[in-house]
Amino acid sequence: MTTQVLKVEKKINAEPARLFRAWLKVEDFSRWFLSGELIGIESVQIDPRPGGRFQINMLLDGKIFPHEGEYIAIEEPTKLVFTWRSHATGGRDTLVTVTFTALPAVTDTSSAETSNKTQTLVTLTHERLANDIEIKMHTHGWESILEGLDQWHSRKE
């Protein structure tokens, strides 16, 4: 079977380490993952170490949809690799890699004081998806999730 790969990217005005840690701390993760969507978070469990597992129970229309996986690599603050399994992958393990690349600081002139803001390019690659439907569903989901991460960070500044 030929598998497909999706890739989404987002520039966020934040340090890579801050965004990286937001993926591994339950308190922060629960605040930004899926924010603003019709789907919510019922519960999150994270064991942030290579070989550690996670479970994210998403809530939609009163039904719980478990998403789970295992951390393959945790290279703070630049890279996370984990398996991803859910109803939307047909119960198969797929592979997600998230990288955090520091970009040159941008000058912010929107306020009275000019400042330089660190930017991070967050790149998420999701491999082993089976078909165009899985690509479409996950592209929308991951784009929303990265937008939630950006909004969460902006609120915390």
Structure characterization notes:
The protein has helices spanning 16-22, 26-32, 132-156; strands at 4-12, 40-46, 53-60, 63-75, 79-84, 94-108, 115-129. The N and C termini lie far apart (46 Å). It is of the alpha+beta class and 157 residues long. The protein has one domain: Alpha-D-Glucose-1,6-Bisphosphate, Chain A, domain 4, CATH 3.30.530. A seven-stranded antiparallel beta sheet has the order 1-7-6-5-4-3-2. The chain has three helices and seven strands; from the N terminus they run βααββββββα. The radius of gyration is 16 Å and the shape is globular. Belongs to the AHA1 family. Residues 13-151 form the Activator of Hsp90 ATPase homologue 1/2-like C-terminal domain. InterPro entries: ASHA1/2-like_C (IPR013538), START-like_dom_sf (IPR023393). It comes from Leptospira kobayashii. This is Activator of HSP90 ATPase.
In short:
Belongs to the AHA1 family. This protein is an alpha+beta fold.
Strand order of the largest sheet: 1-7-6-5-4-3-2
Roughly how many Å apart are the termini? 46 Å
Q: From the coordinates shown, what is the CATH architecture?
A: 2-Layer Sandwich
- Briefly note the structural class of the backbone: alpha+beta
- Let me know the average pLDDT: 90
Number of helices: 3
Protein name: Activator of HSP90 ATPase
Organism: Leptospira kobayashii
Family: Belongs to the AHA1 family.
Domain Activator of Hsp90 ATPase homologue 1/2-like C-terminal: 13-151
